[in-house]
Design goal:
Number of helices: 13
Oligomer: single chain
Strand order of the largest sheet: 1-4
Mean pLDDT: 84
Protein name: HNH domain-containing protein
Organism: Karstenula rhodostoma CBS 690.94
Low-confidence stretches: 31-41, 50-68
Order of helices and strands: HEEEEHHHHHHHEHEHHHH
Structural class: mainly alpha
Number of domains: 2
Largest sheet: 2 strands, antiparallel
Radius of gyration: 23 Å
Distance between the termini: 16 Å
Amino acid sequence: MTETIAPDEQHNFETFRDCFSEPVLKALSKPIDKPKKKKRVPRKSKDGKTRVFRKEEKAETRHAVSTEDDETSAEDLGEFIDYLSTLIFPSLPPDLRTLSYSKYRDNANLQNRYSTPLATSTETHLLNLIPPPALDSLSSYALLPSPPDPLDLHHFFTPVLSSYIATATAPPPIWSSTRTSACELCARDWIPLTYHHLIPKSTHDRVRKRGWHAEERLNSVAWLCRACHSFVHRLAGNEELARGFYSVELIVGGGIDGDSEKREVVEAWIRWVGGVRWKSR
């Protein structure tokens, strides 16, 4: 039986659920095989005449999502994420469930306890609180081995907890006036949003030096759900994002060169993740 979320913890619960969903969606989005076209290879036959044969090349694997039974699988996955989040979140300490920017800023104990990267003692304590039914469910989906060892739990849950803490304690962004009501990729409007630097900050010095963009474009952002935000960073490296994917339209269109493979991958992702929704609360 899942726990009931207290009204004053609802906002943080939604943030936690979004952070928790990101590794689950990443792990369960399936790679698909796309065979390359057969290559025409000239060869000489025994009679000395040149003939053209088609040579089968190795299949190329690209990251995309399975489109089989998309609607059903997305709905089931949304319920799975919602169920596990409702199991795990209430098991966290009360001060973590109600964490906020102002509380964190004004409380040295919270800063010592929940500064990231998490101290080993804090991490161990939090991982030990995760309910066994949640671990069993993750094992049944092959997201964790059965039984998971401490290193397995560290690799899966520590990024989730760190992401939740960073989001819950983040100050209001200076771009809050540009905030949209829905993710600019998947269009889900019932999910927390994060801001994605369309020109990654790590590339700004190079962008200025090479003159790739005007100074006023450097801090432009798109508002994306966490799953789409992570997907964009898997789609291309920071420099490639800065040069060819510096708008939502370019991301959807496969970059400045209109790469058809990337465009198909983005379209498949949007179709699939757009169907993943939580139960209404």
